[in-house]
Design goal:
The chain is mainly α. It contains six helices and four strands. It has a two-stranded parallel ribbon. Strands 3-4 form a two-stranded antiparallel sheet. A hairpin with a 2-residue loop joins strand 3 and strand 4. The longest helix has 23 residues. The radius of gyration is 24 Å and the shape is globular. The two termini are about 40 Å apart. About 15% of the residues are buried. This is RNase H type-1 domain-containing protein. It comes from Nitzschia inconspicua.
């Protein structure tokens, strides 16, 4: 999970908690200030909450749209909350006791996130279906949160390439050509405009293996 998506999840959880708290206890929430050190996320939420147009299908192709649409929807339901950007890691330049309260809290939040990163098993599981998302793109057992078109193209090309390699090398259907695909991609990325290269597919059990 990238930092942008992680920040969005954090804001979504806060907003969801406040919304349910208000609904359950029939409260009138006071004005609140919500800070985030990801400026792009803050700008997106502030701009999107002012838009009156409905979501377009192509909007769902934006990075981490499933979480973003929930953040924006909740932000519209909680107009008392104002979103602000706070510059991160200010403690590297200024003593902690000299920082503003939002900056101190941001430092503490980053420290907690870092501790979790070190202790977590980082097990990859499909993301939960957040209300309003309706569908997810799952690839190799993981939720694709961005670059959907690229993942679909790569999947299609990979299947075709695997079929070609097996036919060309007379490999069995059970043979693993995963290393061949990786090698081919690395070879393609390393090519320049003035370089000509011949890709050789080398896998366990290939006909030309020495």
């Amino acid at each position: 999970m990238d930092s942008y998506r992680a920040e969005a999840y954090g804001k979504c959880s806060i907003l969801q908690f406040l919304f349910l708290l208000r609904e359950y206890y029939d409260l009138t929430l006071a004005s609140m200030h919500l800070y985030c050190d990801n400026e792009a996320l803050v700008e997106h939420v502030n701009n999107a909450r002012e838009q009156s147009r409905p979501q377009f299908p192509n909007d769902a192709l934006k990075a981490s749209w499933d979480v973003l649409q929930a953040v924006v929807r909740l932000a519209k339901l909680l107009p008392q909350i104002t979103f602000h950007h706070i510059r991160g890691h200010q403690d590297t330049q200024v003593a902690l006791d000299k920082l503003s309260r939002p900056a101190k809290l941001n430092v503490q939040a980053d420290k907690l996130a870092g501790n979790y990163q070190r202790l977590s098993s980082h097990k990859n599981i499909p993301a939960p279906m957040i209300d309003g998302t309706h569908c997810h793109l799952i690839y190799s057992g993981q939720t694709v949160a961005s670059k959907h078109r690229k993942h679909i193209r790569d999947h299609r090309r990979t299947k075709e390439l695997k079929t070609y390699i097996k036919q060309k090398t007379q490999m069995s259907e059970d043979s693993n050509v995963g290393s061949s695909i990786c090698g081919h991609r690395l070879a393609e990325r390393s090519k320049t405009a003035n370089t000509y290269s011949l890709s050789s597919f080398c896998t366990d059990g290939s006909p030309w293996e020495s």
